Amino acid sequence: MSLAPVLMEAPSQLLPAREQMAFTLMFHVILVPFGVALPFITLVMNFIGLRRGDRVAIQLARRWSAVMAIQFAVGAVTGTVISLEFGLLWPGLMGRYGDVVGLAFAIEGLAFFLEAILIAIYIYGWRRMTPRAHFLVGLPLPVIALVGAFSILSVNAWMNTPQGFTLDAQGNPTDVQVGKVLITPILVPQYLHMIAAAYMVAGFLVASVYAVGWLRGRRDRYHRLGFVVPFTVAAIVTPLQFMVGDALARTVFDDQPTKFAAMEIVWKTGTHQPEELYGRLRPDGSVAGGVSIPGLDSFLAGFSRDTKVDGLSATPARDRPTLRDANIAHFAFDTMVGIATLLLGLALWYAVAWVRRRDLPRARWFYRCAAVAGVLSVVALEAGWVTAEVGRQPWIVYEQMRVSAAVTDISAGPIWASFAVIVVVYALVAWAMVGILLRLKVRWRHEDADLVRPREEPPVPEAVSR
Amino acid sequence: MSATDLVAVVLLLLLAAYTCGGGADFGAGIWDLLAGGRYRGEGPRSLVDYAMAPVWEANNVWLVFVLVVTWTGFPVVFEAVMSTTWAAVVLAALGLVLRGAAFAVRKPSTGVVRRWRLGLVFGVASLLTPYFLGSVLGGVASGRVPPGNRQGDPVTSWLNPTSALFGMVGVVAAAFIGATFLVSDARRFGTPDLEIYFRRRSVASAGLLVLLMGVGLPVVHHDAKRLYDGLTAGWGLTFAVIAGVGLVATALLVNRNHLRGTRVLPTAAVAALVLAWGFAQRPFALPTSLTIDQAAGDPTTMRWLVGVIAVAVVLIGPALALLYRLDTTERLTADHDEDLVEAPAGTP
User: How many structural domains does chain B have?
Assistant: First the structure.
């Protein structure tokens, strides 16, 4: 359909290059919350354990740090692959803009290095370091993770709202202003949005494991604590995420009107734009399917139904997302918001139960929902990134460089081959990773069985300070 | 010294650090591969696991730094190398992924056969990455990578005599550093038979590396005359000699069972090899089409990059020192191994 005109002007290796990048990024981003947010959640548990001399809490923190170790190692690898792909797939981007955006990556490299070192000490230090020294080593981790995430989001935000350089006669950037490159208009909402997302994913995902245990009848302190701590973190962050996401959408409206039009499938510029829930944009600009809420899109963009929203047709066809890209971005955006709404409901349920009874909800349905919340939050995370990246097409640097100008001159065949190899290898990696986590789960359940009966447990501080 | 020169030297040192840190890791993988069948090789194999575990990510992050400093400081070089030698970089990346995955899941794995299989993956990966990264550098050194998006030959840029030499040096240097470190590790973990086992391999690979350097000279003379001239005069020659002396000295020390200094000395020797190449191809970033100054990025960025590097040294230095200290004084242990031993028998 609408892909044909793009393929005509775009080099044939563009499609496999985009697919490979999308695949490796989507794989990597699943691991990101385990580096960004899991350290914090684990340290909270570690703190509870130290504070109360609680063996169960300490044991849970240890188990989570082991999971963190595996995820971090795999994340280190998939992250390195992405660094290589900047050159293997997009040498045009790096050759021209490497010295503009590169610095942020240097900060990320630094943060990642520190994180790798401290995580290694934290993970391997449980037994032979003093509990206090061990906890203190872990303490900088959440902060360092925030710095690392800042750098990556800074680069992505710059690709969305590029600034801080001037082009010379040959079109090469000069006069780099580092501050303006690092902090672009869209950075703050985009950054907060990703951090909140990481905390939601890590929280809901870890909690979902114990929700499943709860449903299977393992209603002991081990499972209760394992559920409460991460779920509470995620439940607190969820409403905040709504506010951040709303602010981000309005920044996109201001700074990337074409992307906003694609996300909301607005075709013709005008006021009183309806909000389309799902539905598909057709070549004539009409919308097929979905639910249409009159005036809501204009209202959300500017707090008034009289707000003028630019349509896709306001941008020349070769400078805007294709119809297919727009529909993908819109579908992904609605999926993200839809899931977030469900998760908000779940968080409210939890809060109400807590306020009314100072206890967890009793309904089995709550735990059923909590059990799927983890996977759903991952889907929402993926959908959000699809919205951001597909919505920016055909630009790799918004209105400065096209994706087709950045792609490698290696022909399509080898890139399809490398993509195929990556899919196979990553599938094996995922299989091995999930396999080992499942085996560890079984092993831990046996080993931690004696912790499960709380009354037999004497208050033993030496279990902590071995 | 200008900011550009400083960044170039730092880049060279980062490459040297990765050759040593990553090399120790891949070297261990090579010995894992050569350790023999599933039961016979279990001894060396478990030592490799023990020794590598806590420092693995830190060792590999050097590569990320190499990439980042290259594209920030010398964006045109990054574009040229990654596009022209695309195939070799993809194969090196494949090795990286396989190695990382095998590492991440083997540590908590039990069962000799499963570990042997993962060790096989690790071993093959350990040959791929050092060889192909070496061959990429060989392509650059012999002037086969011109600036631009895939302007050089996508095959002969990494499949040529100099690349083959660099690739082999990469593999043997990794094997050498890996074996030498494992001698100390074997002593640390109190396994004298493995100490002897890796001592022999350390000395043999040092010999092989010196031999490669000798055989390499005529190859380079024939294939890349400019590089030959750089290696046989000035700083290039100085570092090559340091490398040779370091290798021989390490072999002698290890052979006489003096393990003091056998972490610093092999590291210095291998680092000197990398520096010898870097200084031999001065003033070119891409011989002979692009000088380091021409390749440099925006001057403001270069100054900031120097600042970030300074901060990195201040922050990472102590953290890395702490890690290696804790590691070599045995205060870092893998959680799950001891759990297995200590788990009360007969739990349901």
Answer: 1
What CATH number is associated with residue B255?
1.20.1630.10
Give the residue from A124, A422, A438, A466 with the most B CB atoms within 10 Å of its CB, the best one to mutate. A124
> Which structure tokens are listed for A240?
């905040």
What rounded mean pLDDT belongs to chain B?
86
What ipTM, to 2 d.p.? 0.89
Please indicate whether, in this complex, the C-beta atoms of A95 and B72 are within 8 angstroms of each other. no
**Residue B108, pLDDT score:** 61
Chain segment A421-449, per-residue pLDDT in tens: 999 999 988 988 888 888 888 888 888 87
Binary contact (A91, B79; C-beta < 8 A): yes
With CB atoms and an 8 Å threshold, state whether B301 touches A100.
yes
pTM of the complete model: 0.90
Structural domain includes residue B335: no
Decide if B233 is inside a domain.
Answer: yes
What residues in B contact A70, CB-CB < 8 Å?
104-105, 108
Report the pLDDT value the prediction gives residue A453, as an integer from 0 to 100.
58
**Rounded CA gap, A276 and A330, in Å?**
9
Residue spans of chain B under pLDDT 50: 335-348
* Interchain proximity A86–B331, CB inside 8 Å: no
B256 in a domain, yes or no? yes
Beta bridge partners of B290: B286
Residue B346 lies in a domain: no
**Could you report the per-residue pLDDT of A102-114, keeping only the tens digit for each?**
889 888 888 888 8
Region A77-81 average pLDDT:
90
If you ran DSSP here, which 8-state letter would residue B232 be given? T
pLDDT at A396 over 90: yes
CA distance A418 to chain B (A): 7
Q: Region A234-243: what's the mean pLDDT?
A: 94
pLDDT surpasses 90 at A464 = no
Calpha distance B149→B165 (Å, rounded) = 26
Mean pLDDT of A44-71: 91
CB contact, 8 Å: B80 with chain A? Answer: yes
Q: Grade residue A9 by pLDDT with cuts at 50, 70 and 90.
A: low
Bridge partner list, A174: A166
B 321-340 residues with CB < 8 A to A: 322-323, 326-327, 330-336, 338-340
Which residues form the domain of B80?
3-304
Overall size of chain A counted in residues:
466
| Segment A136-151 mean pLDDT | 93
Helix or strand run (H / E) with residue B291: strand B290-291
Alpha-carbon gap, residue A272 to A43, rounded angstroms: 49
Buried b / exposed e over B40-57, threshold 16 CB at 10 Å, is ebbbbbbbbbbbbbbbbb
**Extents of the domains making up chain A:** 13-186+392-466
Give me A220's structure tokens: 């002991």
